[in-house]
Specification:
Helices cover 27% and strands 15% of the residues. It has 504 residues and is an alpha+beta fold. Strands 1, 2, 3, 4, 5, 6, 7, 8, 9 and 10 form a 10-stranded antiparallel β-sheet that branches. A hairpin with a 5-residue loop joins strand 6 and strand 7.
Amino acid sequence: MSEHKKLTTASGIPYYYHEDTLSAGPRGPLLLQDFILHEKMAHFNRERIPERVVHAKGSGAYGTFTVTNDITKYTRAKLFNRAGKQTRVFMRFSTVGGERGSADTERDPRGFAMKFYTEDGNWDLVGNNTPIFFIKDPKKFDDFIHTQKRDPHTHCKSPAMMWDFWSLNPESLHQVMFLMSDRGTPYSYRHMHGFGSHTFSFINADNKRHWVKFHFKTAQGIKNFTNDEAVKMKGEDPDWAQRDLVTAIAKGDFPKWYVKVQIMTEDQAKIYKWNPFDLTKVWPHKDFPLMDVGVIELNENPQNYFAEVEQAAFAPAHVVDGISYSPDKMLQGRILSYPDAHRYRLGSNYEQIPVNRCPFAVNNYQRDGMMRVDGNSGSAPNYFPNSFDSIKPDEGYKQPSWVLDSNVADWYSRNAEGENDHYTQPGIFYREVLSDYDKKNLVNNIVGAMKGIEGPKRDEIINRQLCHFFRADIGLGMAIAQGLGADMSSLQQHMPAKHEAVTI
């Protein structure tokens, strides 16, 4: 038996924690000193040129956000400060795994990114059309995306790669079921919901913090393709979603989304049954009802796709006063990763590109760099403090401090004690959210996708994934197993015992 090779950095240094990021206690936040996270994400951001590594193909438009309800008790963010207030926005929709030339109707999550041009700077909310994601630690992101791209040997998409990763990472089950339902093939960008996905925080005028999730409900109504319809459209018009959005806006049929939030207090977060900062989980609406905030309308097509859509750059790091981060580990990883990706793809001055530029005052000491186009601040000093200009930090923008769970930097596991329940919410999604028609399509889509698994590990991958489906819902597991023609007698070992809770 050959000796195992050690996992190492590019400089040959062996390391152990490849999947989990060092955090201060089980719920974070993450620590900057975990160099492996930066090493993985920085390399990942530079793997493709010139298109985006993920979300390469997309569509975009300008519009307005209008406040309809008062939420100033929760946030002091100026864009929410009065009913009727309008803020200009730019939105970009996208598929995740495909290249720039891929089809719009692929089974894939859809990116849902928004840039709000506020008087306190640009706020970027970068989410998806799903409220959850496949993983809960950013150190796993590049490995996950590699499974959605192309096999390094065949250069073809590989069902075996995808299902192998998902079966080895049961926290992905919730998002896998969203993806494999008809929600994985939206009819158009106009007919899908959007989500900020992560947990963020609101900070009010009294410096009090609340945790928040953002929801964007389509006013056009949810409409999805079935798998057969999506495949058909892929051949007839691979740019269907792009064409649909441009055409609708051009003829004055402006798409709208109702903006809503869920609010959780800091005390509620400490005792809630699920980790509220876990991106693989939702906050049930019965526990945290949706609150109305406003409406977004897209009413202006870009004049030049490359200049305004291809060069648009969104980063969850860009929050404005009254909106801030949370210990959500995936969010913390994206704070680092997204601006780094933009600097690589568009240059260090990417925020001077018109679509990314803040339309209000920008005062800082950044100078030089490739494609500097704003006069480089002329003869003004490039250091602070100095005796020559009037730029001063404003103490009014200080944020309240966080109380951390731990001050000991010893935590790597993405699943703290009691946080490895990967099955309850997927089971609820199957039993309580999907209609009988949706359930049937979900099963058929999963069976069709898993039949594409090939290679010597085929049976192992299928049985491991079936185990997850059984634990979410035995009826779901049975339906998929039967559709795959699995040996039912051998599957007994994968089914939970009658006395065993389905939520391990």
